[in-house]
Amino acid sequence: MLAVLKAEDIGLVYESGLIFKRGHTVLRGINLELHEGRTLGLMGASGSGKSTLGRILAGQQRPTSGRVLFDGEDIWLMPRLERSAYKKQVQMVFQDPEGSLNPRKSIERSIHEVLGLLKVPALQWRSRTKEAFEMVGLSEDLLCRRPAQISGGQCQRVALARVLLLEPRVVILDEPTSALDISVQAQILNILRDLQTDLGLAYLLISHQPEVIGFMAHETIRLEGGEIV
Amino acid sequence: MVVTQNGAIEGETSAAIWKNRSWRVGFALFLSFLLMAIFAAEIAPYNPWTRFEPYQSPGSEHFLGTNDMGHDIFSELIYGSRASLLVGFGAAILATMIGTLVGLISGYFRGLTDEILMGITDVFLMIPQIPLIIVLSAFLRPSFYLIAIIMGLLWWTSTARVVRSKTLQVREMGYVEAARSLGFSDAHIVLTDVLPNILHVIMPKFLLAIASAMIAEASISFLGLGDMTMKSWGMMINFAFNRGGFINGYWWWYLTPGLCITLFVLCVVLMGCAFEEQENETMRLQ
Amino acid sequence: MTAILCPGRTILEVEGLTVGFETAAGLVKAAEDVCFSLRQGETLALVGETGCGKSVVASAIMKLLPRNASVRGHANFAGRDLLTLSEKEMAGIRGKDISIVFQNPSLSLNPIIRVVEQVAEPLQVHGCAQRRKSIETAEKMLERLELDSRESRMYPFQFSGGMNQRAMIATSMILTPKIIIADEPSHGLDSGLVDETMRVMMMIKEQIGSSLLLITHDLILAQRFSERMAVMYCGEIVENGKSEEIFAKPLHPYTRALLDCLPERGFHPIPGSSPSMINPPEGCKFRPRCQQARDRCMRKPQIVDGAAEDGDREVRCWLY
Nearest CA to CA, how far is A124 from chain C (Å)? Predict the structure, then answer.
């Protein structure tokens, strides 16, 4: 089966210094594949470059070497518009749930602005919001609240709803539940698994907890010192 | 607060600020001055350019007496608010707008843009502002409008610095990264995510800029370099000192405009402080 | 048999502790009728999810709550009810007899004062020792925490996270308090650091013979390091007893559901979401999410003795 997203020999080197450049290698020779409906688990100690790899795959950061192939095409060779379209198809869910939402915007506004971005006609906003909330198991009475007024688990679900509105094919989950309590963690993980089955999403699950990886991932790779071991 | 599960705590800055006493007092004063300026024609007993008997002491006909030209001082005071407020607001709005724009662009895009903009800011910071205004005023004898513009063009630097550092901070927040990841344009992110969160830094600076501008204008006018055609409070003090008000002890002439300036600056400062206090409260409640 | 493990007398007895906060949105019932006892030398874990009120309980005991809090009940320590003491009397107890180790220690240390001086400060403040002697005592304490004299003279900003943790623990324990309250000690730390911190804390606790009130949402941490455990839900204690036995045989439906959420047991989620503390459900607060809810659960259940072998279990549920 053709991989939706493929990383070919990805490397990232941070250079410092003006004249005598010193390189700090963050990632080296990374090869991985993400397939529809399957989860690839990415483990590694903190600082091993897991989040950076996630950002590279999402197109948010450019690697210094190697290629990122989406449906076989190198994303950095795509024209700008196509690359923007690609970025919408590969989304990220972050670790700090409350941090992913603007504290001054009501939940409703945070959702509606995504719908505005997608140029969905305003008449459909209410129904689309309802749909998205149903998918993640949230009730509509959260809409008028602010992120500080809802729990971490609910924030994470709102973030997930926003991502799902874009109808992505790949979701990169960067420690999605580490900041959450155990019961909420269980809820979110089950929702993620159900969504994968229903929508055929490809996941890259980054986590430092082996049990989380074990619960969701079909395959696992481990990152140590910037390389896959 | 960790304690409130699903509890709704409304810490809205806009509504709750009315509970703050500093704000209420400051705003009341501010509003009075504003009304005084707008409705000067209705409030003032006489036209400030009408001549009466000069050097009169305060009395029933002329509440604050008359000046050397026979103009009613009380009316001058009321009309004077227009000029002073105009310069104050004009300069502050211009300075704040330029400063915010520069700070936002610099802080959000970083890199080369940041370096260039900060370099320009440094150049402007080197310019001695009040002396330049004095020199320009001396040579050009500009109108109040021009003075306001010049002040605005010189004073944006500190706002730019402050806005830039706060933008740098907000830029690193999770929700900005999330917005970028979702595919929002930079313009959208800056306007809806960054700007509202730095507003609480801009507002006090804006209010204080009004105060600074007024004092600067008063200083220039006092030195006789201001606009002769419009009587600002500073101009009044100038005349008072130069035309025998101080020597003769006509305190109602030179003290009252000074008092007005002080009161206005006070109310502006009160509002600025109340704003900051309220912001801290909101942050704390969250 | 269990008598050998049973520690000495009770040093802290909390009865009927009820805390409410007046807010713009209404009265937040942060804690309701909380009762537990802490015995000498033991570790009691106060377990529950974020927002269940466990930190509020600790703050209430130490009288560190904000002004809009109303507190009722008793917290009997050394023959006195802490809740009735004046601020001056409490100041004498805080740090000396009861001390708190807060989460995120790096933020609690002043980065520009040497570590050894910060550790020595409580001694000076409470008038227990002069400067030179207090520094000596501080150095000895830091050595016990595996920070040698060279390191103790450094500044907190030169320390790693783990070292800061140890410095913070040293500061809390230097006056050999009878009770240590650890508020979410594992928060924001990776597992290696958590292990190290807990190990060090338990070691010092043994050495100075104090009791530990461990407040955490991490069930595994509670299981590993506490002898007894109290589970809180929405401001109430729903179950308390010996940790091992609660894990082996949880009685309250919430405890059972919570344990099922654990990764080891399969991440089975609890349906529904945590209730509001301003308008909690009528009767048993867990009722809307409980699989075994009955009509009688519309009335608030009282704490009863659970039918455990050693009789040391209490549950707040109509099932028992």
Answer: 28
Q: How close, in Å, is residue C148 to chain A by CA atoms?
A: 28
Whether the predicted interface score ipTM is above 0.90: no
What's the confidence (pLDDT) of residue B2? 33
How many pairs of residues across B and C have Cβ atoms under 8 Å apart? 42
Nearest CA in chain C to B8: C25
Q: Print pLDDT tens along chain B (286 aa).
A: 333 333 333 334 456 667 777 888 888 888 888 888 888 888 788 787 788 888 777 777 777 778 788 888 888 888 888 888 888 888 999 999 999 999 999 999 988 889 999 999 999 888 887 788 778 777 876 677 888 888 888 889 989 999 999 999 998 888 898 898 888 888 899 998 888 888 888 988 898 888 888 888 888 888 777 777 777 888 888 888 888 777 777 777 888 888 888 998 898 888 888 887 877 777 666 5
**A14 inside domain:** no
Q: Domain with A53 in it: what CATH number?
A: 3.40.50.300
Tell me which chain B residue has its CA closest to the CA of residue A100: B175
* A118, two tokens: 């997608």
Instruction: Please name the member of B7, B177, B184 whose beta carbon is closest to the beta carbon of A117.
Output: B184
Q: Residue C90: is its pLDDT beyond 50? A: yes
> Smallest Cβ distance to C261: which of A154, A183, A212?
A183
Distance from CA of A58 to the nearest CA of B (A): 8
**CB–CB contact C257 A151 (8 Å):** no
Which residue range is the domain that position A180 belongs to? 38-62+80-228
Can you read off the two tokens belonging to residue C160? 């790693």
Tokens 């201001």 correspond to what residue?
A: B226
Query: Total structural domains in chain A?
Result: 1
Task: Please check whether residue A107 lies inside any domain of the structure.
Answer: yes
C278–B7: do the CB atoms touch at under 8 Å? yes
Structural domain contains residue A1:
no
Q: Do B6 and A150 touch (CB under 8 A)?
A: yes
Nearest by CB: C24 against B3, B5, B9: B9
8 Å CB contact of B9 and C56: no
Architecture of domain C10-41+52-87+227-316: 3-Layer(aba) Sandwich (3.40)
Q: What percent of chain C has pLDDT over 70?
A: 95
Long-range contacts of B177-180 (CB under 8 A, 24+ apart): B177/A94, B177/A100, B178/A92, B178/A94, B178/A99, B178/A100, B178/A101, B178/A159, B178/A162, B179/A102, B180/A60
Measured CA to CA, the distance from residue C67 to residue C32 in angstroms comes to 18
Closest residue, chain B, to A146 (C-alpha): B8
Does the beta carbon of A190 lie under 8 angstroms from any beta carbon of chain C? yes
Q: Using a CB-CB distance cutoff of 8 angstroms, which residues of chain A are in contact with residue C219?
A: 182
Give the closest-approach CA distance of A48 to chain B in angstroms: 20
Write a three-state SS string for chain B: CCCCCCCCCCCCHHHHHHHCHHHHHHHHHHHHHHHHHHCHHHHCCCCCCCCCCCCCCCCCCCCCCECCCCCEHHHHHHHHHHHHHHHHHHHHHHHHHHHHHHHHHHHHHCHHHHHHHHHHHHHHHHCCHHHHHHHHHHHHCCCHHHHHHHHHHHHHHHHHHHHHHHHHHHHCCHHHHHHHHHCCCHHHHHHHHHHHHHHHHHHHHHHHHHHHHHHHHHHHHHCCCCCCCCCCHHHHHHHHHHCCCCCCCCHHHHHHHHHHHHHHHHHHHHHHHHHHHHHHHHHHHC
Assess if residue A26 is contained within a domain.
no
Among the residue ranges A88-97, B113-122, B236-245, C70-79, the one predicted with the least confidence is B236-245
Q: Which domains does chain B have, with CATH numbers?
A: 73-285 (1.10.3720.10)
> Which tens digits make up the pLDDT trace of A130-165?
988 988 888 888 888 888 888 888 889 999 999 999
